[in-house]
Design goal:
heterodimer, A: about 450 residues, TIM Barrel, 2 domains, eight-stranded parallel beta barrel, B: TIM Barrel, globular
Chain lengths: ~450, ~375
């Protein structure tokens, strides 16, 4: 089959502004039934994986808990562990912060999930340097910004030592010979480095995937280098098709420089979508969703994040603020910064608003998180397929706007069209997430050598 | 000893560990040792416990390899991961993973158990453990070995802060008020601002208040230091003692120290066979295969009938038992098929519940659902 295959993941709608909680159909953000529904829908749609993000401190703005978006979420690993019991093939991917955990426990938790799910675990490695989040942890916020990727590398290095610590045949379990686990097959991890000083025997037999699939998200040069060197999949942001091709080519080239194959890396941008029976209907629905996502209060709050100033007096239906942003502001805590150069961003917003006659809220609706794929199922299927065939990415992590039914229509209407195009599986051909993504097993080479 | 006429139901839990608590149990027929790290193994055990309507399924945990002998079972899945997997597959039994608190983050423990409570629909509990060895300290590499007293003082702080984090969201914090654009009423979210001897935690939790409000906290009582923690913080205490009488005395001390009532369960290692001689033979065989594993608590080797009798005669002050089968699944199967019906016949266990009947673990124990400690008594206010 020469046609490139589209890989899809399903992102649980979380605490970001894309999640529409105002809709009467919006369900619980914590009840397990919501997670079950979305995961089973993704599995019905033969998707590669379910994806759950993580937060470790409630966001604050102007010194108060931010209350305009969804607030609160369950523990990532526990939800994935429970979902493993109600799904059979779906990969289970979750973000876990490497700053506030130790490699030993992360390795064991992900190996446990991989064992119990039959090889479906994936870890999106992120690090955090902010002392704000650190206040919830006994180890505090000690990590310097510049050390984030050094820590990520060392965490993964040590975790991989633990995952490799039992040889492939260490678990003997032969009552006749009276050997449960061969002593020679259980290595001791000994690691001394800038971040960790660890010594322990491996605690678990190798899990079905050998190593859980590793995701990386983070677009800085350092982040890309880490991703190209360590990750199996890159959770990126979606741009134009041309931007996607440049990004994908860059990551694959970096992977090759790191001694890997470019195809060892799956590039998966997050993607929002809106479907309609006609292009016009899709556009109308998209705008209605934007109105729900950006209420008057959310519009002002968004501008406060960019401006770094208290804008509580601003009329969302009037013009943008006259004052310039405060680039040194810490008004918003616990979220990734919107703008690296807020003064320039504000200037651009003003020009846009003036040229189009937009109010503050209309401007925010246009510039923040517009849906990426808007159209009929045919249009969306074709556009997504075009991205993959042009190697602008390997597929998408779909971010529905509605919990928990936001994926239903996509699975019912777009997936069959992708299948018709020959770009999407019609049945799972493997059982592990590595199988679904077409990734090699990390111990494959060693195993071949051993039997050669 | 006179036959007991216990007025109340007997609380009954099991602690399930691999092929059983005995390190050689994997060698017995029926153990399926190659499957011990699979979901299928745990699903079978949990289905048995759930169908028998047991009160608790405790999943033990530690950060140690347990044994250096090739002949012994070793290696262990993360207990929270096991409990999470079993949550959607069970409907009745409370799921109680052990979480060693010495080297982990209280914030993580809090949200993990809260989330297990969501995915099990209110059947989560938490057993507090401490990590005493250099082996475990070296696996984390963050601090050295601590003395027992300090370990349990730190554990007490962990229970305290975990409970505060569970309360840090009031039950009605999520308002979804379309008119004002507010998803939560932030007046009902509370910084816990915990500052202890060992750590500080700001809060609030990232996870909303769990279905039970406060999932039951189980504390093993092994010494004076752990007894103090159980007295201060436990909903359920597991008492280890060499015999029933000293266990009852321990329960009395515990309640006196606590100044309140709490459930006290006796730890019993069990190995059952249809006839007593076979049980004794099997236990002796296990000790031959892997010597040097004396009982960690009371041990009952016998038949379903002898165990049911022993349980029926538990002295006052002990509300029931947590049974740790030395071998699996054989002993657990006999518990389900024989011991539970025998106890039912004596009126010591509730009748078999109708299929689909579900309740919370607190409800099962007759514990009321507490309101958040941070909730204002006046309802309806918005700050």
């Amino acid at each position: 089959m020469s046609r490139r295959q589209v890989h899809l993941g399903a992102h649980f709608p979380g605490v970001n502004a894309t999640t529409v909680w105002r809709d009467p159909r919006a369900g619980s953000q914590v009840d397990f039934s919501s997670f079950t529904h979305l995961a089973r829908t993704a599995e019905r749609g033969l998707m590669d994986f379910f994806f759950l993000a993580e937060g470790l401190r409630l966001r604050e703005q102007r010194g108060r808990i931010y209350d305009l978006d969804v607030v609160g979420r369950p523990d990532t690993l526990t939800v994935l562990g429970s979902l493993a019991a109600v799904t059979t093939h779906l990969g289970l991917a979750g973000t876990i912060n490497a700053t506030f955990n130790e490699p030993y426990e992360l390795a064991r938790q992900f190996a446990s999930l991989d064992h119990l799910s039959g090889g479906r675990a994936a870890w999106n490695v992120v690090t955090s340097s902010d002392a704000f989040t650190g206040e919830n942890f006994r180890r505090g916020g000690y990590l310097a910004h510049s050390e984030r990727y050094a820590r990520a590398r060392e965490v993964v290095d040590v975790a991989r030592e633990f995952w490799d610590s039992w040889s492939g045949d260490a678990l003997v379990a032969d009552p006749g010979r009276g050997v449960f686990a061969a002593g020679a097959g259980i290595g001791t991890v000994e690691h001394t480095g800038p971040q960790f000083d660890v010594r322990a025997p491996g605690l678990l037999p190798r899990s079905p995937q050998g190593h859980p699939v590793l995701f990386q998200a983070g677009d800085s040069d350092e982040g890309r280098e880490f991703g190209a060197t360590y990750a199996d999949a890159i959770f990126t942001m979606h741009g134009s098709l041309e931007a996607g091709r440049r990004f994908t080519a860059d990551l694959r080239a970096r992977a090759v420089r790191a001694g890997r194959s470019g195809e060892d890396l799956k590039i998966l941008p997050g993607a929002t979508f809106v479907l309609g029976d006609t292009p016009e209907q899709a556009r109308e629905r998209a705008y209605e969703i934007r109105l729900q996502q950006v209420g008057p209060e959310q519009a002002v709050a968004f501008l406060e994040q960019v401006w770094g100033r208290d804008l509580s007096g601003l009329d969302p239906d009037g013009p943008l603020p006259d004052v310039d942003p405060d680039p040194a502001s810490t008004i918003s805590q616990g979220r990734v910064k919107h703008a690296k150069d807020p003064v320039a961003v504000a200037r651009g917003y003003r020009e846009l608003a003036q040229a189009n006659g937009w109010s503050a809220r209309e401007l925010v609706i246009e510039v923040s998180g517009r849906q990426q794929f808007v159209g009929t199922p045919e249009q969306v299927a074709q556009e997504m397929d075009d991205y993959v065939q042009a190697d602008a990415c390997d597929g998408f992590i779909l971010v529905p706007s509605l919990t928990p039914t936001g994926l239903d229509e996509f699975v019912d209407r777009v997936v069959p069209l992708l299948q018709e195009r020959g770009s999407y599986r019609t049945a799972y051909s493997g059982t592990t997430l590595r199988d679904h993504l077409g990734l090699r097993h990390p111990h494959q080479h060693a195993a071949h050598r051993a039997t050669a | 000893m006179s036959p007991s006429t216990r007025p109340t139901l007997l609380r009954l839990g099991v602690e399930l560990d691999g092929a059983g608590r005995h390190p050689a149990a994997w060698r017995l027929p029926g153990a399926r040792p190659a499957e011990l790290f699979t979901a299928a193994h745990w699903r079978r055990l949990a289905a048995t416990a759930d169908a028998a309507d047991l009160d608790l399924l405790v999943v033990p945990d530690s950060h140690r390899l347990a044994s250096e002998r090739e002949a012994d079972q070793r290696g262990r899945l993360d207990a929270v991961a096991v409990a999470a997997h079993l949550a959607p597959l069970t409907a009745r039994t409370g799921l109680v993973p052990a979480v060693p608190v010495t080297h982990t983050e209280p914030f993580h423990t809090s949200k993990a158990i809260a989330t297990l409570d969501f995915t099990s629909l209110g059947r989560a509990g938490w057993q507090v453990e401490v990590a005493t060895t250099a082996e475990e300290a070296d696996a984390f590499g963050r601090k050295g070995v601590q003395a027992g007293g300090e370990l349990w003082r730190e554990a007490a702080e962990t229970v305290d802060v975990v409970r505060r984090l569970w309360d840090s969201w009031e039950d009605d914090a999520v308002v979804r008020d379309v008119a004002t654009g507010r998803y939560v009423d932030r007046g009902k979210l509370h910084h816990v601002d915990f500052r202890g001897e060992h750590f500080s935690v700001k809060g609030p939790s990232i996870t909303p208040r769990p279905p039970q409000g406060q999932p039951p906290v189980v504390v093993p009582v092994r010494d004076e230091a752990s007894l103090a923690v159980a007295a201060a913080h436990a909903d359920v205490a597991r008492v280890q003692a060499p015999d029933e009488a000293s266990a009852a005395e321990r329960a009395r001390q515990l309640r006196a120290a606590a100044g309140r009532d709490l459930l006290v369960l006796l730890d019993v290692e069990v190995l059952l066979r249809p006839d007593a001689a076979a049980a004794l033979e099997t236990a002796a065989h296990l000790d031959e295969l892997s010597p040097g594993h004396p009982p960690r608590c009371l041990r009952h080797l016998g038949t379903p009938d002898s165990l049911a009798q022993a349980l029926a005669q538990l002295p006052d002050g002990l509300d029931g038992a947590v049974l740790a089968p030395l071998d699996l699944p054989a002993t657990l199967d006999l518990l389900a098929t024989d011991v539970v019906p025998l106890l039912r016949a004596r009126g010591l266990r509730p009748p078999a519940p109708p299929a689909g009947a579900a309740g919370t673990l607190r409800g099962r124990f007759g514990l009321p659902r507490p309101t958040s400690r941070y909730a204002r008594p006046v309802a309806g206010g918005t700050r």
